[in-house]
Amino acid sequence: MADVKQKILIVEDDLDVADMLNAYFRVQGYEIYTVNWGEDGVRACLTSRPDIVILDIRLPDIDGYEVARRLRDDRRTAGIPIIFLTEKRERSDRIQGLELGADDYITKPFDVQELRLRIRNALRRVEQDTLTNPVTGLPDGRLVDERLTECLHRLNWSILIVSLDNLDTFRESYGFVASDDVLRAVSLMVHNAVKDIGSPEDFLGHLGPIDFVLITAPERTTALQDRIRSRLVQSLDYFYPIKDRDKTSPRGKRLEFKTGILQAGEGSIATLDDLKVSLLRKRK
Fold it and tell me: Is the domain defined by 142-281 classed in CATH 3.30.70.270?
């Protein structure tokens, strides 16, 4: 799979500085978005979800402090690293930025090489922090990839995938807190099933935000699948308010789940990507 470029959002009203940063960091291999107003910066974070924001403090409309405050107050953007880029040198200005959750603070005129290293370091810190899912606490990202890759070199393995459908629709109706509660509850049901009839060697993690993978032994897989399906069938309707629990009510798509089992020897699986695609195709 081709490497995905990391995205930098530059919020800077000095067009010369914005153009210089745009040109420099594109050559460094980043995908660059540039806006000149604070309100546009907030909107760009919500629509493009950059990996990091380079944020000037003095902007034509709202200042960089207000932009940072809004980003930190919104769950969708709270984790995006922010580096303030500003002419302000006072200690109080730096403290104000750090109090808002900025990851770094660099003053103009600046050394672009120093800025590049600060961006690299901030992105590395984020990468290290994303080894577990922020909602469920289960392994995610590289940790899961490592365990899946181990399966490619073994002769006897089985993977159960459990996926939630229509969580986005649920979130639109009931909010982020309620949808996070659903995700945590489902992860706990899967974890308890492993605890009850699984083995300490079993591994549970996230293949994606709504996809759980359980690496286990072939002889345990069907029993684990049956236990998990039974608990989910009994529980999903109770995540809704009492007035909305009637499945015939016209509320749009409701929460559903899918499971599937992939075992060693099925199909032609030579790479980690092959394994992930095969798992996603097993959901039903």
Answer: yes
Predicted structure pTM score: 0.61
172-173-178 Cα angle (round to 5): 90
CATH architecture for residues 7-129: 3-Layer(aba) Sandwich (3.40)
Q: Where in the chain is the domain with CATH 3.30.70.270?
A: 142-281
8-state DSSP, 62: S
Rounded to whole angstroms, what are the CA distances from 63 to 13, 70, 81, 101, 106?
A: 11, 11, 17, 15, 16
Regions of the chain where pLDDT drops below 50: 1-2, 250-251
Amino acid type, 39:
E
| Range(s) of the chain covered by CATH 3.40.50.2300 | 7-129
Q: Order of strands across the sheet with 158-165? A: 203-208, 211-216, 158-165, 256-263
Q: Are 148 and 203 in contact (CB under 8 A)?
A: no
pLDDT at res. 155: 87
